[in-house]
Design a protein that fits this description.
Elements: H1 2-19, H2 33-61, H3 63-84, H4 87-114, H5 121-173, H6 187-195, H7 197-226, H8 231-257, H9 263-281, H10 286-313, H11 320-348, H12 351-368
């Protein structure tokens, strides 16, 4: 399992280490906020388009080859900028990294499900989410330090070495998991599967959790700055959010496996915590800002392993890759949709109103997104 956890760390670290430092590039690489926005969107845009595709391919040929292909592709994409070191190649490298992550991320999730019995899915996905959250947390800090030491060329070099090391580790340790025989699936069959409540509810809950996490990371620093806090204090709030999410995920998964927490109750608790967090974010003062960060992190940390465990439990093993890839698509849409919603409301009213609107939507999710009782 450890190489799979390392793969989760790699995709998260690769996304955030570069994204958090792109704005510091010289003017010949990033000439405007629009250019910066497009560069940031390349990685996620490739994932939105390709994750379901690679998930389906992993069902057809096996998740392990797709995992290795994606990691090597990530190394090659990162290495192009190390060799070229020119602004134009930054676009190529970023797009290539996103495409490669689209391969090994759903393949790793499918292997987590296939290599663990259903009774341990909560613990397995909780641990996977923990190391992925570590990548999100460490990416901006470590990436900034690496860029300070040797620029973006060094950062891409570190990512090249990291991806190669994880690929070799996975090649040696991860067992071969052959694809299972599959019945023929029509487009109508696929549509029925992805609109089935057993798939749609946990996927929507994962999207809601990702939206909450993205809004918290992106907008809590803005709220802190408006309250007169410095960058260190606002950075601490974001770190508290990410660290809380990382710590809660394994505990949430273990509670599910032990029967102390059901998927239905856990998703409801997570949505409630996140909604309460955004209500606190709308209140003035550093205390409420920190409480908001902790509640949002805890809410997303509870939901994430439970959502993936519910998807794994309701998916035929021979379709696991397709399910995980499509679920990751839902998360990416939440990652983009949450900030867009809050920003749209804030542009009409104020940022606090955006928090309240998101809190209301998350609270409504308590009635809509919970899986049905078994």
């Amino acid at each position: 399992m450890w190489p799979l956890y390392a793969a989760g760390f790699t995709t998260a670290f690769g996304a955030h280490a570069i994204a958090a430092n792109l704005g510091g590039l010289s003017s010949d690489a990033v000439k405007s906020l629009m250019t910066l926005g497009i560069l940031l969107a390349l990685y996620d845009g490739a994932e939105v388009l390709l994750k379901p595709v690679f998930g389906t391919i992993s069902d057809r040929i096996g998740a392990r080859p797709v995992l290795l292909f994606g990691l090597i592709g990530f190394a090659v994409a990162s290495g192009t900028y190390v060799v070229a070191d020119r602004p134009g190649w930054l676009w190529v490298a970023r797009l290539g990294q996103g495409a490669a992550a689209s391969a090994f991320s759903p393949a790793a999730s499918a292997l987590v499900a296939r290599l663990n019995p259903s009774a341990k899915h909560g613990r397995a996905f909780g641990s996977y989410g923990f190391y992925k959250s570590l990548g999100y947390t460490a990416g901006p800090l470590l990436g900034g330090g690496i860029v300070w030491l040797g620029g973006f060329r060094l950062l891409f070099g570190v990512m090249t070495v990291l991806a190669v090391a994880v690929a070799v580790w996975a090649l040696v340790v991860v067992p071969v998991v052959p694809p299972l025989p599959r019945t023929r699936q029509t487009v109508l069959d696929l549509a029925r599967r992805i609109t089935d409540p057993a798939f749609l509810r946990p996927t929507a809950a994962l999207a809601a959790a990702t939206a909450a996490l993205s809004v918290g990371v992106g907008f809590l620093p803005v709220t802190g700055a408006s309250d007169g806090l410095g960058t260190i204090a606002t950075g601490a709030a974001v770190s508290l959010l990410a660290a809380t999410a990382a710590v809660v995920q394994p505990r949430s998964g273990r509670a599910l496996d032990a029967g102390k927490l059901t998927t239905r109750a856990g998703i409801a608790i997570g949505l409630g915590l996140a909604a309460a967090g955004f209500v606190c974010a709308a209140l003035p003062g550093v205390v409420f800002l920190l409480i908001a960060a902790a509640l949002i992190g805890a809410g997303t940390g509870v939901i994430t392993p439970l959502g993936f465990a519910a998807l794994a439990a309701g998916t035929p093993p021979e379709r696991m890759g397709q399910t995980m890839g499509t679920a990751e698509l839902g998360r990416e849409l939440g990652d983009a949709g949450g900030p867009l919603l809050v920003a749209a409301v804030a542009s009409i009213a104020v940022l606090d109103a955006g928090y309240v609107v998101l809190a209301v939507l998350l609270a409504l999710g308590l009635l809509i997104l919970r899986p049905a009782r078994s």
